[in-house]
């Protein structure tokens, strides 16, 4: 386990966060729960927090590259400006989490719940968000050149997001806002675009256009 409690003579419980490979202790807390903990600017790269209850926790401006947060409860957590590149967040509960300006390059978020999460200006290049729930999530100005196969983006805010080359096969974009988004070369086979919006709030459809060299998609009224 990543979180190892040990008891002092005085009865206080100390939680240790360890590196998932080396076992080295990265940080200690004199408490018996990780919910609502507050950590800022710490180096936690490689930490194993899989399956832990971190509801309401703050990890702002932290180095969390390659951490394992798979299956963790991260609802209402704050990762603003943290580096989570290469992290494993598969199946994590990130409802209403703050990931604004976070580095999520190459992350695995398969099946994660990001309902109403704030991903404003987050960097998700190369991330795998397959079957993620991004209902009402805020991805304004985010770099979402990622894989979102069968992802749920109902009422998601994708204003001015960079979706160039994104894989949205089978995704649900009902009533999503893509005003000013870069949608060049995205893959939309089987995607649901009912009620999705373009610039000035008008609904749009989709059309596949091909030439002899490449295949790309674009939106039209």
Describe what this molecule looks like in 3D.
The protein is mainly beta and 221 residues long. It has no helices and 7 strands. The strands form 3 sheets. A 3-stranded antiparallel β-sheet has the order 1-2-3, with no helix packed on it. It has a two-stranded parallel sheet with strand order 4-5. A hairpin with a 6-residue loop joins β2 (13-18) and β3. It is elongated, with a radius of gyration of 19 Å. The N and C termini lie far apart (53 Å). The model is unreliable at 1-12 and 206-221 (pLDDT under 50).
Comma- or semicolon-separated keywords:
221 residues; mainly beta; 3-stranded antiparallel beta sheet; two-stranded parallel ribbon
Radius of gyration: 19 Å
> Low-confidence parts, pLDDT < 50 over ≥5 residues?
1-12, 206-221
Individual helix count: 0
Q: Given the helix and strand composition, which structural class is it?
A: mainly beta
Kindly estimate the percentage of residues that lie in beta strands according to DSSP: 15-25%
Count of β-strands: 7
Q: How does the overall form come out from the CA principal axes? A: elongated
Largest sheet: 3 strands, antiparallel
Secondary-structure element pattern, one letter each: EEEEEEE
Q: What separation lies between the terminal Cα atoms?
A: 53 Å
**Percentage of residues in helical conformation:** under 10%
Strand order, sheet with most strands:
1-2-3
Mean pLDDT: 86
């Amino acid at each position: 386990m990543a979180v190892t409690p040990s008891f002092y003579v005085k009865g206080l419980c100390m939680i240790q966060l360890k590196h998932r490979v080396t076992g080295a202790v990265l940080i200690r807390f004199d408490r018996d729960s990780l919910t609502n903990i507050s950590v800022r600017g710490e180096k936690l790269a490689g930490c194993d927090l899989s399956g832990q209850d971190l509801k309401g926790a703050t990890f702002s401006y932290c180095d969390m590259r390659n951490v394992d947060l798979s299956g963790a409860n991260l609802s209402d957590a704050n990762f603003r400006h943290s580096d989570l590149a290469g992290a494993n967040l598969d199946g994590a509960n990130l409802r209403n989490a703050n990931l604004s300006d976070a580095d999520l390059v190459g992350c695995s978020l398969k099946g994660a719940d990001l309902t109403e999460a704030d991903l404003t200006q987050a960097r998700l290049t190369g991330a795998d968000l397959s079957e993620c729930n991004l209902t009402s999530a805020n991805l304004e100005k985010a770099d979402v050149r990622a894989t979102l196969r069968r992802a749920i983006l109902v009422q998601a805010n994708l204003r001015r997001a960079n979706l160039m080359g994104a894989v949205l096969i089978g995704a649900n974009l009902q009533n999503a806002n893509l005003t000013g988004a870069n949608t060049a070369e995205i893959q939309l086979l089987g995607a649901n675009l009912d009620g999705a919006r373009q610039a000035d709030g008008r609904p749009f459809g989709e059309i596949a256009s091909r030439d002899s060299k490449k295949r790309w998609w674009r939106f039209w009224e």
